[in-house]
Amino acid sequence: MEKANIKTLIVTGIPGVGKTTVINELSSMLKGRGIQSFIANFGDYMLKTALTEGLVSSRDQIRKLPHRVQIRLQSLAARSIAEEARRKLIEGGVVLVDTHAIVKTSSGLWPGLPSHVVMELNPDVIIVVEASPEEIYRRQSEDRTRDRKDIQEKGIEEIKELLASARYAALSSAVLVGASVLHVLNERGKVKEAAESILRVIDTI
């Protein structure tokens, strides 16, 4: 994604941190300033291709596909997001990519932002949204729309490990394109504060 007058942020976080909620709040703030934004949920793009090819019937099945298939879906998703962002933000704006820095799969922890993805998207900043392990576990357990039993196998300890891995993964991806990494705490009832911390960083780009 050519920088030009487009600012690109990749917003990551393990399931349950509330990153999508933070992104939506941030988008509303940008709109209030008269700044156009384009939100791209990376998983939606992967799912669209996987459904078309008959590979899955739901989003949570993607991480259970063969590794090489997931890599191909990743590449196609990154390319589609970059192309759509350029079409929709002709006069400039902010791209917000909603995704994960790591994904727990049947073959182990899988990088959500490997070189072929992060270089295609070319972000200015990689955001790592976090919350307390206890809060994340609660949110995961209350979300009846997703099947995350495989993510909760070891409970709180598993979540702590995933949080640490997500930080390392985000930093490793940022090195590839010279992006900065920002950790944002999304505490319960404080989504506005989390979004404002990201907004302040956008002003510095």
Report on this structure.
The two termini are about 15 Å apart. This protein has helices spanning about 20-30, 40-50, 65-90, 115-120, 135-140, 155-175, 190-205, and strands at about 5-10, 35-40, 95-100, 100-105, 110, 125-130, 180-185. The chain has a five-stranded parallel sheet with strand order 2-3-1-6-7, with helices on both faces. A two-stranded antiparallel ribbon has the order 4-5. Helices cover about 50% and strands about 20% of the residues. It has a single domain (about 5-205), classed as Rossmann fold. With about 200 residues, the protein is an alpha/beta fold. It is globular. It is found in: Cytoplasm. Its EC number is 2.7.4.3. Belongs to the archaeal adenylate kinase family.
Which CATH class? Alpha Beta
The CATH topology: Rossmann fold
CATH superfamily: P-loop containing nucleotide triphosphate hydrolases
Biggest pleated-sheet summary = 5 strands, parallel
Number of domains: 1
Give the termini separation.
15 Å
Number of helices in the DSSP assignment: 7
Report the average pLDDT across residues.
91
- What shape does the CA trace take? globular
* Number of β-strand runs: 7
Widest β-sheet, arrangement of strands? 2-3-1-6-7
CATH architecture: 3-Layer(aba) Sandwich
N-to-C series of helices and strands: EHEHHEEEHEHHEH
Measured by DSSP, the beta-strand proportion falls in: 15-25%
- Global structural class: alpha/beta
Rg for CA atoms: 16 Å
Question: Low-confidence stretches at least 5 residues in length (pLDDT < 50)?
Answer: none
Summarize the amount of helix as a percent range. Answer: 40-55%
GO molecular function, one term: AMP kinase activity
Enzyme class: transferase
GO cellular component, one term: cytoplasm
Catalytic activity: AMP + ATP = 2 ADP
